[in-house]
Amino acid sequence: MRQSKLFGRTLREAPAEAQTPGHRLMLRAAIAKPLAAGLYTWLPLGFRVAKKVEQIIREEQDRIGAQEMEMPVLTPADPWKQTGRWEMLEPITFRTTDHNGREFMVSYTHEEFVHLHAMQEIQSYRQMPQIVYHFQSKGRDEARPRAGLLRVREFVMKDAYSFDVDQAGLEKSYAAEYGAYERTFKRMGLDAISVESDTGAMGGDVAHEFQVLTEVGEDRIAICANCDYRANLEKATRHMEGQRARADVVPAPTQIATPGTESIEALEASLNQPKHAFLKTLLFRDQSGKVVAVVLPGDRDVNEAKLRKTLATGEVKFASDADFAAAGAVRGYIGPVGLKARVLVDTGVGGGGYTAGANKKDAHLRDVVLGRDFQGERVDASDVREGDVCPKCKVGRLTIKRGVEVGNIFAYGTYYSDKMNATFVDEDGTRRPFFGGSYGIGVGRAVQTIIETHHDDKGIIWPPQVAPFDVHVLALPVNDDAVRAAAEKLVADLESRGLDVLYDDRNESAGVKLADSDLIGIPIRATVSKRNLAEDKIEIKQRHVAEPLMVKSLEAVSCIETFDAEKLKWRG
RNA sequence: CGGGGCGUAGCGCAGCUUGGUAGCGCGCAGCGUUCGGGACGCUGAGGUCGAGAGUUCAAGUCUCUCCGCCCCGACCA
Question: Are A213 and A402 in contact (CB under 8 A)?
Answer without folding.
Answer: yes
